[in-house]
Amino acid sequence: MPNETASPVFVGAHVPLFFLLLWLSHHQREVVRDRTRLGVSGFLVLHALLHFANSSAPSYEFHGLLSHTMIVGAALAGAGYLFAAWREGSAAAPS
Predict the structure, then answer these.
(1) What is the pTM of this model?
(2) Rounded-to-10 torsion of CA 30, 46, 44, 25
């Protein structure tokens, strides 16, 4: 797909997805909130790993400082959330 077509489709698809995930991460049911937050956090880490694994591909275009900052920053936030959730779960578990 040409970049002129792909870019608006890519960005446009993320807007409803963002609002859906925002809604689910604040859902009234705790299990929905927790699973959404864990799933998004895990995805952010996996997303960065996939970028790193594909960074040597000729078609890879995410070489800028802004791209790297956003990808790595999101992965660090996701990893931080997963670590905090793991610590909280470890602290709540009976000894």
Answers:
(1) 0.81
(2) -20
